[in-house]
Structures are given as C-alpha cells and as structure tokens.
Write a structure and sequence with these properties.
The strands form 2 sheets. The protein has a 7-stranded mixed β-sheet. The protein is 47% helix and 18% strand. By secondary structure, the protein is an alpha/beta fold. It folds into 2 domains: 71 residues, Arc Repressor Mutant, subunit A (Orthogonal Bundle); 114 residues, Rossmann fold (3-Layer(aba) Sandwich), CATH 3.40.50.720. A hairpin with a 2-residue loop joins strand 6 and strand 7. The chain contains 9 helices and 10 strands. The protein starts with 6 loop residues before the first helix and ends with a helix. 23% of the residues are buried.
Length: 213
C-alpha cells in the first residue's frame, strides 16, 4: 500500500529506478543497498529507509531482486503504464524536451505540444504536431492528461498555468524562469536551467577562490 512519503523520498525513487534499469540491462539479478549506495551517492541506510516507506522488498543478508524491486518502484511512482504528457511552448527548449521524451523516455507519451507562435504552428516534432492553445482543452480531455511541461517566456507562464489548471492538469514541470502560483492540489516543480548553471559556475570557481585565499 502506498503511504504519504516525504517529497525528498519521492524525488530519490526515480534515481533508484534508473540504476535498476541499468543493472537489468547488464543482467544483474541481485543488488545490495551498499551497491545501490555506491551507484547513487545516497547512504545505504537512507536507501533502506526510503524503500521501507512502501514495504519490505529485500532479504536481509541477500539484498534486492532487481527485477522485482524495479516492478515495485514502477507501481509506486505510477510508471507501470505510460503517462500522457503535454508540452506548452515549442521553442528550442520545448522541441528538445519533446524529442527527448518521445525517443528516450519510455514512461511517458507526449500527446500534444502547444504554442501560439505562428511560425511554429503545424510543425511536427517526432510526429507530434504543434497546435494552437485553443486546442489544448480538447487534447487534455481526449487523452485524460494530468501532467504538463511549460517552456514558455516568463511573462506568459502564469496565464498558461491558469489554463492548465482550468483543464484538470494536476502536475506541472515548469522551465519558465519565474515562480508560479497554483492551487494546493496542483504540484508545480520549477526547473530553472539558468539558476542551475549559475550555481555550477560558482562551484567551478571554488577551488580557484580557495587557492587565492
């Protein structure tokens, strides 16, 4: 049975899943929490605690069956069947994310991409046509979409969120460089690439600062 696990735990589960996918491709049948720790960077104790939120999946002294644990994680996360996804914003980033999710991410199915830029309309990205925003409600309803990605400019992002919420979207991955407001029942995760890069630059200079000091 699924429990209300902390957000920090939920964010680590896909990391474990990625490791298990790789191990299964290498025909590794059993994995210990110690090896999972080495692969992920999380402590073995943390991994055991994370998995314990959802049940007992391993055997003391033996470890975890990789295929069994992968199957359980897929069900916990909700990836045991493809999740329908829409992308709002067909600029360079929107195109790249759409291509990646269609060609490299087997857990989602991009069922629509939307933009109001006349230069982008009717273009196809890996077979998915770029549509005007007015068509979004029909696509969301037809495919029962609950998850969306936003790759639009900051000045229109909040309006896009309002449209998504009005049409039943409950989870949004936001790449627009702005903080968005949404009802409590809608989860918004912000992925600001500029901030991530700027943070990385800080760490790249840390050794130089240390030497100068």
């Amino acid at each position: 049975m699924r429990r209300n696990a902390p957000k920090s735990v939920i964010k680590r589960l896909p990391v474990y899943l990625r490791i298990l996918d790789n191990l299964i491709r290498r025909d590794v049948e059993i994995i210990s929490s110690r090896i999972l720790s080495e692969e992920t960077g999380f402590t073995a104790e943390q991994i055991r605690k994370d998995l314990a939120f959802f049940g007992a999946f391993g055997t003391r002294g033996t470890g975890y069956n990789t295929s069994y644990l992968r199957e359980k994680l897929l069900r916990i996360i909700g990836l045991d069947k493809q999740t329908n996804l829409i992308v709002v914003g067909a600029g360079h980033l929107g195109k790249a994310l759409t291509r990646y999710n269609i060609t490299k991410n087997p857990y989602v199915k991009v069922v629509g991409i939307f933009d109001n830029n006349p230069n982008e309309l009717d273009a196809e990205i890996e077979g998915v046509k770029v549509r005007v925003m007015e068509e979004l409600p029909a696509v969301v309803k037809e495919h029962d979409v609950k998850v969306a990605m936003i790759t639009v400019p900051a000045d229109v992002a909040q309006a896009v969120v309002s449209t998504l919420v009005d049409n039943g979207i409950t989870a949004i991955l936001n790449f627009a460089p702005t903080k968005l407001k949404a009802p409590d029942n809608v989860y918004v995760h912000n992925a600001d690439l500029t901030i991530e890069l700027q943070s990385l630059i800080y760490y790249s200079l840390e050794e130089e600062k240390h030497n100068l000091g």
